[in-house]
Amino acid sequence: MNVVVLTGAGISAESGVPTFRDADGLWEGHRVEDVATPEAYDRDPATVQRFYDERRAALAAVQPNAAHRALARLEHWLHDDLLIVTQNIDDLHERAGSKRVLHMHGELLSALCGACETRTPWHDDLHHGPECPQCAAADLRPDVVWFGEVPYEMDRIFDALEVCDLFVSIGTSGAVYPAAGFVRAARAYGARTLELNLQPSEGSLFFHESRQGPASELVPAWVDDLLS
Ligand code: BJW
Fold first, then answer.
1. pLDDT confidence band for 21 (50 / 70 / 90)
2. pLDDT tens-digit profile of 93-132?
3. Is 105 a known active-site residue?
4. What is the pTM of this model?
5. Quick check: 214 and 171 in contact, CB under 8 A?
6. Smallest Cα–Cα separation from 156: which of 164, 165, 145, 147?
7. Domain residue spans of the chain
8. Do 1 and 165 contact (CB within 8 A), yes or no?
9. CATH number 3.40.50.300 is the correct assignment for the domain at 3-227
10. Residue among 177, 182, 217 to mutate when testing ligand 1 (max atoms within 8 A of CB)
11. Which residues contact ligand 1 via a Cβ below 6 A?
């Protein structure tokens, strides 16, 4: 069986990483669409850099939870027949042991050079304007995808959606495209579709089945079912 799993902020919530659109979300009081943009960065790069520097530093203090670990266990059995497509910029899937992970909205632990567009693994702060290791321009920004920018790995993702037998969406609001459209693409290609989320998402009706509850309970139970 070939499986594509899409994950969103909800899978990391129980690790202590804030979500975006929940009541206590990252941008409480702001519309995410207003602040997660290249225009917001151009207007006030220092504030945006500090915001991501704080999130990068906070990442060191959190750990993968039972949902991340269950997906790593699933990869142990399915090998190349499992692909995780994550909208998250944390590294909790990798730290749980998953290897086949595509970060479509970029990664906190990577910097993108505005001058030469090189992506460089990055663990430190960026607000003080360090030089790009490739071209020496002091023009490094967080390597994340904001609204209006093109997500990473779209060709590989659609290739995977085309051949998967099962598409599972975990902990995402279904509010942001193109990820919100993956369920319809997978269905059109013939996959069965399952949603695992704390509450029905904006896209729940597009799934064959939707289960509600915390990811740390639903995901291990689903993996146990699949492997039994
Ligand atoms: C739990 C839980 C627990 C909580 N257990 N569950 C009009 C119509 C259609 C599209 C557009 C439109 N106007 C503009 C667009 C396009 C636009 C878009 O979608 N806008 C919408 C506002 C409509 N999209 C873009 O611009 C994208 N680019 C694009 O489309 O390029 C064109 C193109 C595409 C493809 C090929 C070629 C060209 C880019 C989108 C970039 C999004 N970036 C961000 C920031 C990343 C950096 C950062 O992290 O700071 O990505 S915004 C933010 O939203 C972040 C997330 O990855 C993303 C999704 O959020 P997510 O994961 O769903 O989090 P939440 O908080 O919303 O939801 C959490 C869920 O978990 C909730 O449901 C909870 O209930 C649940 N939950 N605890 C289980 N314990």
1. confident
2. 999 999 999 999 999 999 999 999 999 999 999 999 999 9
3. yes
4. 0.97
5. no
6. 164
7. 3-227
8. yes
9. no
10. 177
11. 8-10, 13-14, 19-22, 25, 32-33, 36, 87, 89, 105, 144-151, 154, 171-173, 175-178, 197-199, 201, 214-215
